[in-house]
Design a protein that fits this description.
Helix content: 40-55%
Structural class: alpha/beta
Number of helices: 14
Strand content: 5-15%
CATH superfamily of the largest domain: P-loop containing nucleotide triphosphate hydrolases
Order of helices and strands: HEHHEHEHEHEHHHHHHHH
Radius of gyration: 21 Å
Shape: globular
Distance between the termini: 42 Å
Number of strands: 5
Number of domains: 2
Strand order of the largest sheet: 2-3-4-1-5
Length: about 300
Amino acid sequence: MLKPFSKRNKKIIDGVVKNKNIANGYLFSGVSGSFILGAAQYFSMSVNCLNFNEGPCGVCAVCLAFQKGVFADYVVVNPGEGQGKSDSITVDQIRNIQEIVKYGANTPGRMFVVINNSHKLTKQASNAFLKTLEEPAERVSFILLTRNLMDVMPTIKSRCQSMYYPCATKDEMIAYIKKHYKDNEFNEIVERAVGSKELLGRFLETSKIVGVNYISFKDLLNSSKIDRLIFVEKLAKDKNEAQMLLMIWIDELMQAYGDLDWQVINNIELLIENVVQMKYNVNLRLHLESLMLNLV
């Protein structure tokens, strides 16, 4: 099911496929709710589709293999795979990619290797991957996905064709959910999303809205400082979940207040600062405890 990523970008992808002008490296960037992973799959499927015409046909052997997740020449690399609790893309993962692409595509079409959260490449991994980009294998393309474009190594950026994906609108996401989910599922999803575009985007990208740790910012402010610290114990178990929740709170604050008073501005600045700092090696629990005690 094609997620509602930018129609403008879809037209660009369709044009690239029609002209058969496929580059070795692409860099797709966008915020949560821009569905860049879906765009990468759409691009890869379109290039390999046996009957492409204004988009992939959806019924040929290649399209069916894509939809079932078994197409041999579509590889997705995620941070931490096979690395225990690591949240980075390591040099070992890049070396594994180098082995996979060494002999080119397995099918008559083109192999696509998608590197999800490419801003999490370690320095050593980035340098190793740069060599792979500079010496491309036959009929192999890389698509790097990121929501933190500034953290991608400049030399890698310069060797990729960049495309920015704006966030889908709330109406587009709701229309998509209404079309593809049963009425009772639709009602539950929309109700749990409490009107947040961030929450809807997270659901469509990960098939879950927020884990058991979700609480609205309004409810958080109404809770005692002791309850906030108890909440931190749950939230500190997953850094990605914590980052997402802080981003949802920022979205909630921006939408809920027409006139931003000093307290709202202070809270927004604190949340933004903490989202940025979480990218680095910090003691997550102490970090969140400090944040909770300073929100007003």
